[in-house]
Write a structure and sequence with these properties.
This protein has 296 residues and is an alpha/beta fold. It is built from 12 helices and 8 strands. The chain starts with a helix and ends with a helix. The chain binds guanosine-5'-diphosphate. Keywords: Hydrolase. This is Signal recognition particle.
Protein backbone atom coordinates (compact mmCIF):
# COMPACT_ATOMS: atom_id res chain seq x y z
CA UNK A 1 0.00 0.00 0.00
CA UNK A 2 1.65 3.25 -1.09
CA UNK A 3 1.76 6.29 1.14
CA UNK A 4 -1.31 8.14 -0.12
CA UNK A 5 -3.36 4.92 -0.01
CA UNK A 6 -2.29 4.43 3.59
CA UNK A 7 -3.37 7.99 4.38
CA UNK A 8 -6.70 7.51 2.62
CA UNK A 9 -7.41 4.31 4.53
CA UNK A 10 -6.59 5.83 7.92
CA UNK A 11 -8.65 8.86 7.05
CA UNK A 12 -11.50 6.61 5.98
CA UNK A 13 -11.39 4.79 9.33
CA UNK A 14 -11.44 8.07 11.25
CA UNK A 15 -14.36 9.32 9.19
CA UNK A 16 -16.26 6.08 9.70
CA UNK A 17 -15.91 6.68 13.44
CA UNK A 18 -17.52 10.09 13.00
CA UNK A 19 -20.61 8.36 11.63
CA UNK A 20 -20.96 5.91 14.54
CA UNK A 21 -23.87 6.82 16.77
CA UNK A 22 -22.28 5.28 19.88
CA UNK A 23 -18.57 5.50 20.47
CA UNK A 24 -17.69 2.75 22.87
CA UNK A 25 -14.65 0.55 23.29
CA UNK A 26 -15.94 -1.70 20.51
CA UNK A 27 -15.96 1.19 18.05
CA UNK A 28 -12.44 2.21 19.14
CA UNK A 29 -11.22 -1.38 18.73
CA UNK A 30 -12.66 -1.51 15.21
CA UNK A 31 -10.97 1.79 14.36
CA UNK A 32 -7.61 0.62 15.69
CA UNK A 33 -7.93 -2.70 13.88
CA UNK A 34 -8.43 -0.90 10.59
CA UNK A 35 -5.60 1.60 11.17
CA UNK A 36 -3.15 -1.06 12.36
CA UNK A 37 -4.06 -3.31 9.41
CA UNK A 38 -3.31 -0.45 7.02
CA UNK A 39 0.02 0.29 8.71
CA UNK A 40 1.07 -3.37 8.54
CA UNK A 41 0.20 -3.51 4.85
CA UNK A 42 2.44 -0.47 4.41
CA UNK A 43 5.34 -2.44 5.88
CA UNK A 44 5.42 -0.65 9.20
CA UNK A 45 7.21 -2.86 11.69
CA UNK A 46 4.78 -5.01 13.67
CA UNK A 47 6.31 -3.97 17.01
CA UNK A 48 5.69 -0.29 16.22
CA UNK A 49 2.12 -0.97 15.13
CA UNK A 50 1.46 -2.80 18.38
CA UNK A 51 2.96 0.09 20.32
CA UNK A 52 0.75 2.60 18.51
CA UNK A 53 -2.35 0.57 19.34
CA UNK A 54 -1.39 0.33 23.02
CA UNK A 55 -0.51 4.03 23.27
CA UNK A 56 -3.80 5.15 21.76
CA UNK A 57 -5.72 2.82 24.05
CA UNK A 58 -3.83 4.07 27.09
CA UNK A 59 -4.54 7.68 26.21
CA UNK A 60 -8.22 6.96 25.75
CA UNK A 61 -9.67 6.23 29.09
CA UNK A 62 -13.12 5.04 28.06
CA UNK A 63 -14.75 6.22 31.31
CA UNK A 64 -13.53 9.74 30.69
CA UNK A 65 -14.60 9.48 27.11
CA UNK A 66 -18.12 8.58 28.11
CA UNK A 67 -18.49 12.02 29.62
CA UNK A 68 -16.51 13.81 26.99
CA UNK A 69 -18.78 15.75 24.69
CA UNK A 70 -16.31 15.50 21.87
CA UNK A 71 -15.12 11.91 21.93
CA UNK A 72 -14.46 11.76 18.23
CA UNK A 73 -12.11 14.71 18.37
CA UNK A 74 -10.22 13.21 21.33
CA UNK A 75 -9.79 9.91 19.50
CA UNK A 76 -8.79 11.54 16.24
CA UNK A 77 -6.22 13.73 17.97
CA UNK A 78 -4.77 10.76 19.80
CA UNK A 79 -4.40 8.75 16.57
CA UNK A 80 -2.87 11.74 14.78
CA UNK A 81 -0.37 12.34 17.62
CA UNK A 82 0.68 8.69 17.62
CA UNK A 83 1.17 8.70 13.85
CA UNK A 84 3.38 11.80 14.22
CA UNK A 85 5.40 10.08 16.94
CA UNK A 86 6.24 7.29 14.49
CA UNK A 87 8.20 9.69 12.28
CA UNK A 88 9.43 12.06 14.98
CA UNK A 89 12.16 10.80 17.32
CA UNK A 90 11.88 13.99 19.37
CA UNK A 91 15.42 15.07 18.50
CA UNK A 92 16.21 18.52 17.17
CA UNK A 93 17.90 18.03 13.75
CA UNK A 94 21.44 19.27 13.32
CA UNK A 95 21.80 22.22 10.95
CA UNK A 96 25.01 23.64 9.49
CA UNK A 97 25.94 27.08 10.71
CA UNK A 98 27.30 29.73 8.41
CA UNK A 99 30.80 30.84 9.23
CA UNK A 100 31.66 27.46 10.74
CA UNK A 101 33.35 24.81 8.62
CA UNK A 102 30.70 22.14 8.72
CA UNK A 103 31.46 18.65 7.43
CA UNK A 104 28.70 16.22 6.51
CA UNK A 105 29.34 12.60 5.59
CA UNK A 106 26.76 10.73 3.51
CA UNK A 107 26.30 6.99 3.97
CA UNK A 108 23.89 4.48 2.44
CA UNK A 109 23.63 1.49 0.17
CA UNK A 110 24.37 1.68 -3.53
CA UNK A 111 21.31 2.82 -5.46
CA UNK A 112 19.72 4.46 -2.42
CA UNK A 113 20.11 7.88 -4.02
CA UNK A 114 23.13 8.97 -2.00
CA UNK A 115 25.07 10.76 -4.72
CA UNK A 116 21.94 12.47 -6.06
CA UNK A 117 20.98 13.58 -2.54
CA UNK A 118 24.48 14.98 -1.88
CA UNK A 119 24.09 17.39 -4.77
CA UNK A 120 20.52 18.22 -3.80
CA UNK A 121 21.60 19.11 -0.27
CA UNK A 122 24.62 21.04 -1.50
CA UNK A 123 22.37 23.08 -3.78
CA UNK A 124 19.85 23.64 -0.98
CA UNK A 125 22.50 25.23 1.24
CA UNK A 126 24.18 27.04 -1.63
CA UNK A 127 20.88 28.79 -2.25
CA UNK A 128 20.91 29.79 1.41
CA UNK A 129 24.15 31.64 0.77
CA UNK A 130 26.65 29.06 1.97
CA UNK A 131 29.93 28.23 0.26
CA UNK A 132 29.49 24.49 -0.36
CA UNK A 133 31.93 21.87 -1.68
CA UNK A 134 31.39 18.22 -2.62
CA UNK A 135 33.93 15.45 -2.09
CA UNK A 136 33.62 12.11 -3.89
CA UNK A 137 35.13 9.45 -1.61
CA UNK A 138 33.38 6.65 -3.49
CA UNK A 139 36.13 4.67 -5.15
CA UNK A 140 34.14 1.42 -5.18
CA UNK A 141 31.56 2.15 -7.86
CA UNK A 142 32.98 2.78 -11.32
CA UNK A 143 31.68 6.10 -12.58
CA UNK A 144 30.81 7.48 -9.14
CA UNK A 145 33.24 10.37 -9.47
CA UNK A 146 31.97 11.20 -12.97
CA UNK A 147 28.39 11.22 -11.70
CA UNK A 148 29.18 13.55 -8.82
CA UNK A 149 31.34 15.73 -11.06
CA UNK A 150 28.54 15.99 -13.61
CA UNK A 151 25.88 16.81 -10.99
CA UNK A 152 28.13 19.28 -9.19
CA UNK A 153 29.13 21.05 -12.41
CA UNK A 154 25.49 21.39 -13.44
CA UNK A 155 24.70 22.97 -10.08
CA UNK A 156 27.89 25.10 -10.18
CA UNK A 157 29.19 23.54 -6.99
CA UNK A 158 32.94 23.01 -6.51
CA UNK A 159 33.92 19.35 -6.20
CA UNK A 160 36.90 17.20 -5.31
CA UNK A 161 37.73 13.66 -6.39
CA UNK A 162 40.38 11.54 -8.09
CA UNK A 163 40.58 9.07 -10.96
CA UNK A 164 43.88 7.62 -9.78
CA UNK A 165 43.73 7.52 -5.96
CA UNK A 166 42.13 4.25 -4.83
CA UNK A 167 42.04 4.97 -1.10
CA UNK A 168 38.74 6.66 -0.17
CA UNK A 169 40.10 7.78 3.21
CA UNK A 170 42.92 9.62 1.48
CA UNK A 171 40.52 11.32 -0.96
CA UNK A 172 38.16 12.32 1.84
CA UNK A 173 41.02 13.79 3.85
CA UNK A 174 42.43 15.68 0.89
CA UNK A 175 39.05 17.00 -0.24
CA UNK A 176 37.97 18.13 3.20
CA UNK A 177 41.43 19.62 3.78
CA UNK A 178 41.29 21.58 0.54
CA UNK A 179 37.81 23.00 1.14
CA UNK A 180 38.68 23.79 4.77
CA UNK A 181 41.74 25.70 3.61
CA UNK A 182 39.56 27.65 1.18
CA UNK A 183 37.18 28.46 4.03
CA UNK A 184 34.09 26.67 2.75
CA UNK A 185 31.04 26.77 5.05
CA UNK A 186 29.83 23.30 4.22
CA UNK A 187 31.77 20.28 2.96
CA UNK A 188 29.75 17.24 1.92
CA UNK A 189 31.55 13.90 1.63
CA UNK A 190 29.93 11.19 -0.50
CA UNK A 191 31.12 7.72 0.51
CA UNK A 192 30.73 4.49 -1.38
CA UNK A 193 27.80 2.14 -1.00
CA UNK A 194 27.51 -1.61 -1.53
CA UNK A 195 24.59 -3.70 -2.71
CA UNK A 196 23.95 -4.91 0.80
CA UNK A 197 25.24 -4.15 4.26
CA UNK A 198 28.73 -5.71 4.19
CA UNK A 199 31.70 -5.69 6.54
CA UNK A 200 33.99 -3.90 4.04
CA UNK A 201 31.48 -1.10 3.61
CA UNK A 202 31.17 -0.48 7.32
CA UNK A 203 34.91 -0.66 7.86
CA UNK A 204 35.43 1.94 5.15
CA UNK A 205 32.74 4.23 6.60
CA UNK A 206 34.29 4.00 10.05
CA UNK A 207 37.73 4.85 8.66
CA UNK A 208 36.45 7.86 6.72
CA UNK A 209 34.49 9.07 9.73
CA UNK A 210 37.57 8.72 11.95
CA UNK A 211 39.65 10.67 9.42
CA UNK A 212 37.35 13.60 8.61
CA UNK A 213 35.40 13.73 11.91
CA UNK A 214 32.08 14.83 10.39
CA UNK A 215 29.80 17.18 12.31
CA UNK A 216 26.88 15.15 11.04
CA UNK A 217 26.43 11.82 9.29
CA UNK A 218 23.46 11.55 6.98
CA UNK A 219 22.03 8.11 6.32
CA UNK A 220 20.33 7.93 2.92
CA UNK A 221 17.65 5.30 2.51
CA UNK A 222 15.45 4.33 -0.40
CA UNK A 223 11.84 4.89 0.71
CA UNK A 224 10.55 2.03 -1.39
CA UNK A 225 12.39 -0.84 0.30
CA UNK A 226 9.65 -1.69 2.80
CA UNK A 227 10.37 -4.33 5.44
CA UNK A 228 14.10 -4.38 4.66
CA UNK A 229 14.40 -0.87 6.12
CA UNK A 230 14.57 -1.95 9.74
CA UNK A 231 17.59 -4.26 9.36
CA UNK A 232 19.35 -1.86 7.02
CA UNK A 233 18.98 1.15 9.30
CA UNK A 234 20.05 -0.89 12.34
CA UNK A 235 23.17 -2.13 10.56
CA UNK A 236 24.24 1.41 9.65
CA UNK A 237 23.46 2.70 13.12
CA UNK A 238 25.72 0.07 14.69
CA UNK A 239 28.65 1.19 12.60
CA UNK A 240 28.39 4.97 12.34
CA UNK A 241 26.89 7.68 14.45
CA UNK A 242 23.87 8.52 12.28
CA UNK A 243 22.81 12.10 12.90
CA UNK A 244 20.12 12.56 10.26
CA UNK A 245 18.18 10.65 7.66
CA UNK A 246 17.19 11.43 4.09
CA UNK A 247 14.51 9.18 2.64
CA UNK A 248 14.58 9.14 -1.15
CA UNK A 249 12.09 8.20 -3.88
CA UNK A 250 9.10 9.38 -1.89
CA UNK A 251 7.61 10.38 -5.25
CA UNK A 252 7.44 6.76 -6.35
CA UNK A 253 6.03 3.69 -4.68
CA UNK A 254 7.14 4.48 -1.16
CA UNK A 255 4.88 2.83 1.36
CA UNK A 256 5.79 4.87 4.39
CA UNK A 257 6.87 1.86 6.42
CA UNK A 258 10.49 2.33 5.40
CA UNK A 259 10.67 5.89 6.66
CA UNK A 260 9.01 4.95 9.92
CA UNK A 261 11.32 1.97 10.49
CA UNK A 262 14.41 4.08 9.79
CA UNK A 263 13.43 6.59 12.46
CA UNK A 264 12.60 3.88 14.99
CA UNK A 265 15.81 1.94 14.34
CA UNK A 266 18.16 4.92 14.55
CA UNK A 267 16.39 7.37 16.83
CA UNK A 268 17.49 10.03 14.36
CA UNK A 269 15.32 12.60 12.62
CA UNK A 270 14.45 12.61 8.94
CA UNK A 271 15.66 15.97 7.64
CA UNK A 272 14.66 15.82 3.99
CA UNK A 273 12.79 13.60 1.59
CA UNK A 274 13.75 13.10 -2.05
CA UNK A 275 10.78 13.63 -4.32
CA UNK A 276 12.27 13.09 -7.79
CA UNK A 277 15.40 12.69 -9.85
CA UNK A 278 16.03 16.39 -10.41
CA UNK A 279 18.33 18.54 -8.33
CA UNK A 280 15.54 20.58 -6.82
CA UNK A 281 13.41 17.57 -5.84
CA UNK A 282 14.23 17.75 -2.15
CA UNK A 283 11.65 18.67 0.51
CA UNK A 284 12.36 19.63 4.06
CA UNK A 285 10.77 17.12 6.38
CA UNK A 286 8.81 17.69 9.52
CA UNK A 287 6.53 15.15 11.13
CA UNK A 288 3.25 17.02 11.55
CA UNK A 289 2.95 18.49 8.04
CA UNK A 290 4.04 15.10 6.63
CA UNK A 291 1.29 13.21 8.49
CA UNK A 292 -1.29 15.91 7.74
CA UNK A 293 -0.45 15.71 4.04
CA UNK A 294 -0.57 11.92 4.13
CA UNK A 295 -4.04 12.03 5.65
CA UNK A 296 -5.11 14.45 2.91
P1 LIG B 1 23.72 6.00 -5.03
O1 LIG B 1 24.23 4.71 -5.64
O2 LIG B 1 23.17 5.77 -3.66
O3 LIG B 1 24.69 7.11 -5.07
O4 LIG B 1 22.41 6.40 -5.87
P2 LIG B 1 22.21 7.50 -7.01
O5 LIG B 1 22.29 8.86 -6.45
O6 LIG B 1 23.07 7.17 -8.16
O7 LIG B 1 20.66 7.22 -7.35
C1 LIG B 1 20.21 5.97 -7.84
C2 LIG B 1 18.99 6.23 -8.75
O8 LIG B 1 17.91 6.74 -7.97
C3 LIG B 1 19.26 7.26 -9.82
O9 LIG B 1 18.63 6.84 -11.01
C4 LIG B 1 18.60 8.53 -9.28
O10 LIG B 1 18.18 9.40 -10.30
C5 LIG B 1 17.42 7.95 -8.52
N1 LIG B 1 16.94 8.80 -7.43
C6 LIG B 1 17.62 9.35 -6.40
N2 LIG B 1 16.82 10.05 -5.58
C7 LIG B 1 15.56 9.95 -6.09
C8 LIG B 1 14.25 10.44 -5.69
O11 LIG B 1 14.06 11.12 -4.66
N3 LIG B 1 13.20 10.11 -6.50
C9 LIG B 1 13.37 9.35 -7.63
N4 LIG B 1 12.29 9.07 -8.36
N5 LIG B 1 14.56 8.87 -8.01
C10 LIG B 1 15.64 9.16 -7.27
Amino acid sequence: MVLNELGARINGALQALSKESVIDSKAVDALLREICGALLESDVNVRLVHQLRENVKKQLNMDDLATSSNKRKVIQTSVYDELCRLVDPGVQPWVPRKGKQNVIMFVGLQGSGKTTSCTKLALYYKRKGMKVGLVCADTFRAGAFDQLKQNASRAHIPFYGSYSEADPVQIALEGVGKFRKDRFDLIIVDTSGRHKQETELFLEMEQIAAAVKPDNTVFVMDGTIGQAADAQARAFKESVDIGSIIITKMDGHAKGGGAISAVAATGSPIIFIGTGEHMHDLDRFSARPFISKMLG
